[in-house]
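Subject: for your reference before the review

Hello V.,

The reviewers asked for a structural picture of the protein, and I figured it would be easier to keep everything in one thread rather than splitting it across files. Below is the amino acid sequence we used in the manuscript, unchanged from the supplementary table.
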Amino acid sequence: MSSSAHEPTITADEPPTPATDPAPGPEDGREYVPPSARIQETDSDGEVTEKLKRQGVRLGAGTIAPAVFWPSLILIAAVALLAMFTPESTGTVLSNFQGWITTNLGWYYMLAIGIFIAVALVICFSKFGKITLGRDGEKPEHGIFSWFAMLFAAGMGIGLVFYGVGEPLGYATVSPKPGWPGTETVDGVTSILPGQEHAVAMLGMAQTFVHWGLHPWAIYAIIGLAVGYAIHRRGRPVSIRWALEPLLGDRVKGWMGDIIDIVAIFGTVFGIATSLGLGVQQIGAGLSAMGIIETPDQTLLIVLIIIITLLATLSVVSGIGRGIKWLSNINLSLAAILVLSVLLLGPTLFLFQNLVQSIGVYLAEVLNMTFDVGAYTGEAGAAWGAGWTIFYWGWWVSWAPFVGVFIARISRGRTVRQFIAGVLLVPTLVGFIWFSIMGGTGLWRQLFSEDPLVEEGAESLGVEAALFDVLGGLPLGGVLSVIAIALVAIFFITSSDSGSLVVDMLASGGHPNPPIWSRILFAWLEGALAIGLLVAGGLGALQAASIATALPFSVILLAMCVAIIKALKQDQDVLDARERRLRYEQLSERLSEDFDDAFGDQVDDRIDYRISRTSGLFDRQRVSGAGGTATRTAEPSTAQGTGPEAGPSRGRFGRRRKDGQEEEK
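And here is what came back from the structure prediction:
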């Protein structure tokens, strides 16, 4: 780092380092942020702006970062307009790009996800796990249960509701993975062999767990840890670029940092637009299932996007605290009501059995499914991956800046080990339970009831309508369908609102309270992009956009792995040196106080066995001794114990004399 001074621990709002802390020195490799530049909770917007500028953030009029805001705005608006006014051409380009990435870089996406999991686990169980995201010894900002609840909220989203029934059901019926035992692929079409439906259904549950378990949350753990370390320990603003400061140094303050934030904004907006597009498709399917409309057409979906984006704008204007907070509470309550109702009203015993058995199959297959790139399944495997696994990895990577910033902000005071363990385990467990109940109910009806959801010989499944088909077959199905529609709508609003806040913070250099006008602008941009992608090709265009926009940001995430390991190593080296110095000082203090008690009596009149002590013939003197003669080298008159400056008198064996008498051994 280029700073001239350093200090051991940095947070965004910590007081000056106490005088008892070791003085910062050049051996401390961490960036120093002076107290005057650290953002405090009590700072006004003007004070925050000035502190951001002191840290190298280039802000313009309206508290936006022009080098990030305008390129992001122009790129996103251009894609949205092209998709709306040239839908066929846009759809073709996205489809071709998706096919190229899936065919040529599908292996890269699979390998990258495996790397994220490995890095997260290694950091969690290494000595770095004791490092605090904040000052050393700082207490967590939120209690353990509140923190778990917020992680749970982060793990919930439109995707869980959209794919909760349809994904496991699709794998067990019309969309099994090519190459699975019990399947065969003929002319590019994969089907399930007779009698193998149950075995394929179990693999389908395991594959769903892969898509919604540790794998996506390892991505979020990496970016959340890197951002959390930068803002809570280094005292940097909330921005993706600072997560790469340990790797790039001061270059993050220039054009490299601008590109990083632009890519993060671009990916986040596309990820949110994908979720919004999926959400309105499911709302339309729900309205159709309830008999309110006949068939959800494109016009209805566009109207739904406009209405819900308007509601998201009202939430933006009301303020993040009042808007998102109460919507999130309603969200979690509705989700809990829905999943518990399905558990109690559905095949309860089977659902518990399904959860346990699916976890077992997942543990047995997870390594294979992590690295299964379809090398031996040809075009059929590539097409399946484009619609499922590769799409998911692209979608998660696109969402990474949004979710990463959120979990980083709520995790101050947690140790690295607590952070990674909580982020990986809590949402993963939530996902397992959700899909075991919602997906398990669909599988039970398909495999064991007399009213299957998918007719024999069917070639496709309406994923967005599968949830309402299941709910319609339960008692109180109409009420549960209303709850499901409300749940999707609120997810839509909270995703747009909170996503707009994160995007706007990135476009404002990390300002915690960016201007409301730009948040409204980005909220409507997300809605416009969702409309454009729906017009350009519906679900296929949404999937293609996620895969395409995730490619550049996946490179940034891999760089983050290197950056966070480097930062933690520097941090740990400083902590280790401090610990060694403290132990040395404690040992020195003890020895100076009582050496004899620790190691026994000191020996002062030791025999000199150095090479230089052996003398020649003419350097020796003959001396007489009792019982014979001996030779010894002449000693100076100032030898120890004979001169006036000599220390305490000692006996022949180095023990102190007592009362003028030499002690005998």
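For the response letter, the relevant points are probably these. DSSP finds 21 helices and four strands in the chain. Strands lie at 183-186, 189-192, 620-625, 628-633.

Happy to draft the paragraph if you're swamped.

O.
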